[in-house]
Amino acid sequence: MSEIARGLEGVVFTESDLSYIDGQQGKLYYLGIPIEELAEKSSYEEVAFLLLHRRLPTRDELSAFEEKLKARRGLRVEKVASFVDYPRDVHPMAALRTAISELGLFDPKEEDLDPENLYETGVALIAKFPTVVAALKRVREGKLPLEPRDDLSHAANFYYMLNGEVPSPEQERVLDVALILHADHGMNASTFTALVIHATASDLYSSIVGAIGALKGPRHGGANEAVLKMIQGIGDAAKVPEWFRERLEKKERIMGMGHRVYKAYDPRARILKRYAEKVATAHGRSREYEILEAIEREAERQLAPKGIYPNVDFYSGVVYSDLGIPPEFFTPIFAVARIAGWVGHILEYTEKDNRLIRPRAKYTGELDLPYVPIEQR
């Protein structure tokens, strides 16, 4: 019997060009391009094109792709109206899961698995995800959802629909960078879930709904929300050393610390840390940032020798909070970014492999047991 790979760790089941993680060196690449380069020079629209086409666009191609996204941002009126009936106290990821499933009900080509239709549906989902998440937020706040604006970029329009005002150039760039950093990340749990569903020849909406369900879990996408709650619970940077010691003694996890793949500093965390510092300096979020810095100092001394460093969730919460995003919507923002990676991997798998994913489990029960009639049990 083959050795069991717990959690499928170390198992390689397909090939991909989309993203590569060098966990030992703390490097992340999209199509071979360092994430630092993309965060500094690219836009989310360009990164989405890159992940869907597996190459950078020309200027004309990027312009056409941006226009295609803008044209597909809108939602049917009856679709938005249904959001009002969602329970107000449900987690936004549960609402997003249901909303995307409903989108499939209104798509007459839902069952069309032709690669061209998969691509067009995927582009539409990339365009609509911000509209859905923003509408869910505003309905939850007792406000009317806003229509998308085609004179704004993907990030700026998303900010506008969330908050009812056009972002400053700085706010637009911060959100754009955050979306770029979360757009893809190798064969993570939600991407794998999407591919498992897609490989059964199910529709694209089912694959994406499954990915949302995987991302919803605090071990995957929900950690950034937990980090902000952790900060709020500590309350003061001076309390961090004692708090940290108690967590280690109880063998409790420090949220935002450590990663299944990275054994070095997560490169996305380095980038977001710079923005978190800017936020702290410019917008009065120094208390949160000071607590994070204090936790990182303790972690560097006690956890770094074990290969445990800050991950992307550690600083993202402070950045999102400054953008007017409440903690319960941090994970939906993750989904708004990651939809490009999910669709890109589905398109790639369709082209390269498209084989049913069917692992095995080692059976540990007994065999040939007699059936006991119910009256004798």
Class from helix and strand fractions: mainly alpha
The low-pLDDT segments are none
Number of beta strands: 3
Strand arrangement within the widest β-sheet reads 1-2-3
CATH homologous superfamily of the largest domain? Citrate Synthase, domain 1
Which value, in Å, is the CA radius of gyration? 22 Å
Chain-averaged pLDDT: 93
**Helical element count?**
16
Describe the global form.
globular
Based on the coordinates given, report the CATH architecture of the largest domain.
Orthogonal Bundle
Main beta-sheet annotation: 3 strands, antiparallel
Provide the CATH top-level class of the largest domain.
Mainly Alpha
- Percent of residues in beta strands: under 5%
* N-to-C span: 34 Å
CATH topology call of the largest domain: Citrate Synthase, domain 1
The helix/strand series, from N terminus to C terminus, equals EEEHHHHHHHHHHHHHHHH
Helix content: 55-70%
The number of domains is 2
